[in-house]
């Protein structure tokens, strides 16, 4: 698949005039897109951008043509030559019109692939596509990708589960027990917003519902490294998992914002990547639930 086929414009078919745009994720490309289309909004459910306006299709076509023309026309040919001279051989990689990466799900793989220029997720075929122009960067990161993929193979995960079951109850059991309490310590003088998705280092993106009593048990420091000094300055915040639509409606924090708060305050407004990861996990849960319900209905029908 040529890179140009990953740049797509689709007219909106609803009541609101506009067009949808999809293109490979690249930090600088997204920045330029937002500068050119400040009214554009990301549609998480559809994994594409919506640009309002009756001239949206024409303006998007012109912008995408300009971006494609700006690319090095010889870069893909150079990448093909590099691949032919020093190819990667792996069950997780196929080379056709582009480089296609298919692995078991791994957060590590997702983070690495997002960092590779012009790599994009083909949701229809459930593979990562990488143009040959990015081969050198893919080859540089490939040992990490392959290691993470092997670690997440069903058989490898099954072995780890069996090993975990055979061990005496330990730290992992204590973590799960704490997680089931659905509580999180926050500074009493710097409370998180309620009823909106917020990021935490312990439980990812969650929604705080209410503020509870003060934190007193010193043993909880094991689970929450951001606790500093006297616990009297902290209170428990009760949390739940966000709903998918809540995640879609949440505006991501500017890139880099909140990094300094991870070790001190213990919560921050989520980034675009954090929201997308939580949405992906929630969609997986929904699909699994639908599959179980469909399976149960089939059994009843039979």
What's the layout of helices and strands?
Blueprint: E1 8-11, E2 18-22, H1 27-36, E3 41-43, E4 48-52, H2 56-70, H3 75-85, E5 93-95, E6 99-101, H4 107-115, E7 120-122, E8 127-130, H5 135-151, H6 154-166, H7 171-180, E9 183-187, E10 197-200, E11 204-214, E12 234-240, H8 244-249, H9 272-301
Helix pairs in contact: 4-5
Mind explaining what this structure looks like?
The protein is of the alpha+beta class. The protein is 40% helix and 19% strand. It is built from nine helices and twelve strands. A four-stranded antiparallel beta sheet has the order 1-2-4-3, covered by helices on one side. Strands 5-6-8-7 form a four-stranded antiparallel beta sheet, with no helix packed on it. Strand 3 and strand 4 form a beta hairpin. Helix 4 packs antiparallel against helix 5 (135-151).
Provide a compact summary of the structure.
The protein is α+β, with helices and mostly antiparallel strands. The protein is built from nine helices and twelve strands.
Q: Any descriptors?
A:
disordered C terminus; globular; 302 residues; 4-stranded antiparallel sheet
E-strand count: 12
Q: What structural class do you assign from the helix and strand content?
A: alpha+beta
Quaternary structure: single chain
The percent of residues in helical segments reads: 40-55%
Q: What is the averaged pLDDT score?
A: 84
């Amino acid at each position: 698949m040529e890179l140009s086929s990953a740049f797509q414009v689709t007219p909106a078919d609803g009541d609101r005039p506009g067009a949808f745009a999809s293109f490979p994720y690249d930090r600088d490309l997204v920045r330029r897109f937002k500068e050119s289309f400040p009214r554009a909004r990301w549609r998480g459910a559809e994994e594409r951008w919506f640009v309002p306006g009756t001239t949206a299709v024409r303006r998007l076509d012109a912008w995408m043509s300009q971006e494609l023309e700006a690319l090095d026309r010889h870069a893909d040919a150079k990448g093909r030559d590099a691949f032919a001279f020093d190819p990667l051989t792996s069950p997780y990689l196929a080379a056709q019109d582009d480089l296609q990466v298919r692995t078991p799900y791994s957060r590590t793989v997702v983070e690495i692939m997002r960092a590779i220029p012009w790599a994009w997720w083909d949701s229809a075929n459930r593979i990562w596509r990488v143009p040959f122009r990015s081969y050198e960067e893919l080859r540089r990161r490939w040992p990490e990708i392959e290691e993470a993929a092997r670690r997440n193979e069903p058989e490898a995960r099954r072995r780890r589960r069996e090993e975990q079951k055979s061990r005496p109850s330990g730290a992992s059991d204590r973590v799960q027990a704490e997680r089931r309490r659905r509580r999180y310590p926050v500074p009493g003088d710097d409370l998180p917003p309620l009823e909106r998705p917020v990021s935490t280092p312990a439980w990812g993106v969650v929604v705080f519902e209410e503020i509870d009593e003060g934190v007193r048990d010193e043993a909880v420091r094991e689970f929450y490294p951001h606790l500093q000094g006297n616990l009297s300055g902290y209170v428990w915040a009760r949390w739940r998992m966000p709903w998918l639509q809540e995640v879609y409606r949440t505006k991501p924090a500017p890139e880099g914002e909140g990094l300094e708060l991870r070790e001190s305050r213990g919560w921050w407004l989520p980034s675009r990547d954090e929201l997308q990861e939580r949405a992906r996990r929630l969609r997986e849960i929904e699909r699994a639930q639908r599959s179980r319900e469909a399976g149960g209905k089939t059994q009843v029908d039979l």
